[in-house]
Design brief:
heterodimer, A: 222 residues, SH3 type barrels, B: 153 residues, alpha+beta, 17% strand, flat
């Protein structure tokens, strides 16, 4: 932006329509008729005279909680309002979450200790189970292998949110899908290694899974 | 100089670290839709609370306590400086409107910010520098827990 250059000619041009001296309201009406889209003018010129348009950006007014209620925590109403996951289809793009996916891969490689797989003496595989249980799956590229519901087969995408019973993913078509965890097998790959998870063992909130210990439950064949 | 043992809850620290970074990434992509960021930080705080882990104060200072938003000045928070009675920095969260005040007082800095109050300095599990003897009358007893600093993002 050049601050010291001369003014452009259009500003000084005396023949321009807007420069002629008019009454206050007329200049505004002329300006609006030029630049507003046609639909709004068709409703009638009266609308321009009476309507009040806010041109500044108005910030939301925050409701201050009363002193009796807790100020530092949310009530259930507010919690529902704030943490609602917007299921607007156009908002979430697959390409936006690829860097998240790369970060997740690095995190998993560190936590699962994948370097030792290549060594001649990999440790006992039981260690893996606990680490998989306690790990975080936000940003994981997950595919469905086996389910009871045939419409869910083959779905794959990046996990955005994990709730008690579902995974919420973004597919390559920029669509949001919700995959229930019960009665299904998921799989993901890191480098050349493929891991499969039984969804029915994972039915709990991701924050509650940290404390859970791994119990060997039999699971029905799918 | 021997190395300290691996920290007892290392995998949990890694997970909290990852969630904080993921929240920051998601905020930069979606400056209008803040619910993902809130979700990640909510899980991070719940995990830390369940396992009894202490988060580094620098992390806690950038989180809104009420709505669990990452406070980045310019994107999700307003940062203003006040000078009348006390020297203050005020962060207002743009999601819920709560304010965070940080008071600056030369004589009474919090222990994390005051190098003269640290007893020990550990980086990557090895003791890097011997502390200078703290001046007398200036908090000789308080300990600063610096182990979490190398886990910080």
């Amino acid at each position: 932006m050049e601050l010291y250059c001369t003014l452009p000619k259009s500003v000084k041009d005396p023949s321009d329509q807007h420069k002629k001296k008019k009454k206050g309201n007329e200049t505004i009406n002329d300006f609006l008729t030029e630049f507003l889209p046609n639909k709004r003018i068709k409703t009638g010129e009266n609308s321009l005279k009476d309507k009040v348009l806010m041109l500044d950006s108005v910030r939301q007014k925050w409701e201050k909680p009363l002193k009796t209620k807790c100020r530092n925590s949310l009530s259930a109403k507010d919690r529902r309002r704030f943490k609602v996951f917007d299921i607007e289809q156009g908002e979430h793009r697959f390409n936006d979450y690829i860097p998240l996916h790369k970060m997740w891969q690095e995190y998993m490689m560190a936590s699962l200790d994948i370097k030792r797989y290549n060594l001649p003496n990999p440790g006992p595989k039981k260690e893996n189970n606990e680490r998989l249980l306690k790990a975080d799956y936000h940003g994981c590229m997950i595919t469905v292998r086996k389910t009871k519901c045939p419409s869910l087969l083959g779905q794959s995408g990046i996990v955005l949110m994990e709730t008690k019973n579902t995974f919420k993913i973004v597919t390559k078509d920029n669509k949001l899908k919700i995959l229930p965890k019960m009665n299904s097998l998921f799989s993901f790959t890191i480098k050349e290694f493929v891991f499969t998870i039984h969804g029915s063992q994972f039915c709990s909130k991701s924050s509650m899974r940290v404390r859970k210990k791994f119990k060997f439950k039999g699971s029905a064949d799918l | 100089m021997g190395k300290t043992k691996g920290l007892p809850f290392e995998d949990v620290h890694n997970r909290c670290n990852f969630l904080y970074q993921a929240a920051k990434e998601s905020l930069k992509r979606h400056k209008t839709d803040l619910s993902l960021c809130r979700f990640y930080i909510n899980t991070m705080t719940v995990i830390a609370r369940r396992q009894g882990i202490r988060l580094h104060p620098d992390i806690k200072r950038t989180i809104c306590k009420r709505c669990c938003l990452l406070l980045l000045p310019g994107i999700s928070a307003i940062c203003r400086v006040k000078k009348k009675h006390q020297k203050l920095v005020i962060f207002t969260c743009l999601g819920c409107g709560t304010m965070k005040r940080f008071i600056y007082n030369k004589d009474k800095l919090p222990t994390i910010d005051d190098p003269s109050a640290w007893l020990d300095f550990i980086i990557d599990g090895e003791q890097v520098r011997q502390p200078q003897t703290p001046q007398e009358g200036k908090r000789g007893d308080k300990k600063a827990n610096k182990d979490v600093k190398d886990m910080k993002s």
